[in-house]
Amino acid sequence: MPLNYFNPWWKASSVPKNQVGRIREILDVILSFLDYKQIIILYGLRRSGKATLMYQIIDHLLRKRNISPFRILYFSFDEQDFSLNHLLDISTRYPKARIGGARKNISFSG
């Protein structure tokens, strides 16, 4: 499965409405930490809304902060077609191929 499948905003410059879902209360708390140089971990049971929160964060970055769609890479570990080596290769080539090594926002889910 190509990375475009996980990152439809590369083509449309926005997150599809069906992926944004209902805005959760926790979203504002998460957004308040985006300017810190820390890793934010979202964890929970399967199908509890973690990926939806990721899409909401990406939507916020695109619409409110005017981040270029190509600075955001989303990947789901639920997909069996990718190996760890493939993912590591993507993580090393992505900055050069898409944004010339500039600061980027990368999110993984799974």
Distinctive features:
single chain; 110 residues; mainly alpha; 6 helices
Describe the protein.
The protein is mainly alpha-helical. The protein has one domain. Strands 1-2 form a two-stranded parallel sheet. Strand 1, helix 6 and strand 2 form a beta-alpha-beta unit. About 6% of the residues have low confidence.
What's this model, at a glance?
The chain has helices at residues 3-6, 9-12, 17-20, 26-31, 50-63, 84-99; strands spanning 72-76, 105-109.
Secondary structure layout:
Blueprint: H1 3-6, H2 9-12, H3 17-20, H4 26-31, H5 50-63, E1 72-76, H6 84-99, E2 105-109
Parallel strand pairs: 1-2
Number of domains: 1
Question: Quick one: how many beta strands?
Answer: 2
Indicate the proportion of strand residues.
5-15%
The SSE order reads HHHHHEHE
Mean pLDDT: 80
Helix content: 40-55%
Give the biggest beta sheet: 2 strands, parallel
Are there runs of 5+ residues with pLDDT below 50, and where? 97-103
Calculate the terminal CA-CA distance, rounded to whole Å.
16 Å
Helical stretch tally: 6
Which sequence of strands runs across the widest sheet? 1-2
Q: Which overall shape is indicated by the principal axes computed on the Cα atoms?
A: globular
Category by helix and strand content: mainly alpha
Radius of gyration: 14 Å
